[in-house]
Amino acid sequence: MSRREPCAPGPAARTADATHDSRLSIVGEGPPFVYVPGMDGTGLLFYRQIPSLAGAYRIATYTLRDVATHMAELVDDLEAVVTELSPGGGPVTVFGESFGGALSLSFALARPELVERLIVLNTFPYFTPQLRLRLAIGWIRTFPWRTMALVRRLTASRMHSRYTHRDELRKFLELTAGTTRLGYLNRLRILKEYDVRDRLGKLRAPTLLLAADRDHLVPSVEQAQYMAARIPDSTLQVLEGHGHGCLLAPNLDLLSILNGWLEQRTQADRGGRP
Questions:
Q1: Domain with 188 in it: what CATH number?
Q2: pLDDT tens digits for 160-199?
Q3: Is residue 189 part of a domain?
Q4: Least buried of 19, 62, 184, 216, by fewest C-beta within 10 Å?
Q5: Residues 138, 117: Cα–Cα separation, whole Å
Q6: Residue 274 lies in a domain
Q7: Domain count of the chain?
Q8: Which of 218, 247, 253, 252 is closest to 54 using CA atoms?
Q9: Do strands 58-62 and 32-36 pair parallel, antiparallel, or not at all (unpaired)?
């Protein structure tokens, strides 16, 4: 089953630019699962993981609104996606990547009754160093946006896993070509105000923290270790040999990782018995 339709805006989204592409895509059958995209803001980058996951889950992917200027607005938007995905109001599995992980953590704290499981990849409870964030905002405000594709191409080897094929990198460039300066700036500015470090202990959903050990954009392993020590029901898994954009790598199967985590939890509940 596959369909594509407008995402109903949350309360804070009602003044959104009507021309913004806020499409929601739902595919597959099974328990509800939502992918929350990263800084590029497009759920299209989840394409490699969908074929295997769609056999086990009903998956929603969507586009972040470029005009959103506060995390609370994006939390409301995510709630609208969850409501569309699970009309009965049942909790869902939320998976967030990078910036989407920050949004997912914020959502799980604000709407705990809607989150059955939380999975975050290469993310953080607070962005450090803040100086780097301010420099990025200043740079993106001033440099010619048409050169962004070239910047992405030149930095691909550091951004993505070493296993990722050139064809996948070309597709990445195609799928992110529509990313706007406004969206990037607003999401970077949101990160200036984002800090959930002192609230991690309030997370109640079982949480899987995934961190790539060759992430050159975020100190993912260090950040995941920090969160694992503070989130009550959390598991940390290091993705060896992978970079920040590892979901495009051919040897990373999120379904297998998810199944392994759930089996580990099941065995723990049984007291280690097979």
A1: 3.40.50.1820
A2: 888 898 899 889 989 998 899 999 999 999 999 999 999 9
A3: yes
A4: 19
A5: 36
A6: no
A7: 1
A8: 253
A9: parallel
